[in-house]
Amino acid sequence: MEREPDSLEGPESDGRALDARGRLDRTELSAIFAGGFIGALARAALAQSVRASPGTWPWAIFAVNMIGAALLAFIVIRDQESVQPSIHRRAFLAVGFCGTLTTFSTLMLELVKMIEGSYWALASGYCAASIAGGLAAVLLGAKLARLSGGKR
Fold it and tell me: Distance (Å, rounded) from C-alpha 84 to C-alpha 80?
């Protein structure tokens, strides 16, 4: 009789260690939770300190999305190129922290408010700048990660 494995790895597991019932490991989930908590606090603090009024550029949301995109690219590239990639470091920083720091849903709500207020030029500019800026931030983060040095 064959013994059931303690963890399963296969194409469906995305390389993560799963328990016998196919659940993610608790340490990884804890890392995501902790990173998410810190990222959400950082975003909320910035959004509270830099409020946007109707018809103005939402600088706080724009800033966290640009910073988060660059940071996410930096983290992922550094981890991929690391001698010892860490699923827990990546879960904490990339999924948890960057995932809650950045906010696609709030970007969409800001755009809807602009459109409902008939601020068409502002909405178009904000949308275009968010997409172009996000792509530029990812490229910058990736370049900085590669410049910051070889295998860790």
Answer: 9
Is residue 10 in a domain? no
Half-sphere exposure of 53 (CA within 13 A, CB side): 0
Q: Are the CB atoms for 108 and 58 separated by under 8 Å?
A: no
- Please tell me the distance from the alpha carbon of residue 151 to that of residue 23, in angstroms, as a whole number: 31
Parent domain of 30: 26-147
Number of domains in the chain: 1
Q: Phi and psi (nearest 5°) for 148?
A: -75, -5
Beta-bridge partner residues of 24: 18
State the pTM of this model: 0.77
Helices (H) and strands (E) in the chain, counts: 6, 0
Residue 117 in domain:
yes
- For 72-118, how does the pLDDT look when each residue is reduced to its tens digit (9 = 90+)? 999 999 988 887 888 888 999 999 999 999 988 889 999 999 999 99
User: Tokens 């070889």 correspond to what residue?
Assistant: 150
- Within a domain: 13: no
CB distance 69 to 6 below 8 Å: no
Inter-residue contact 131 to 66 (CB < 8 Å): no
Note whether residue 79 is domain-resident: yes
> Over the chain, what is the mean pLDDT?
84
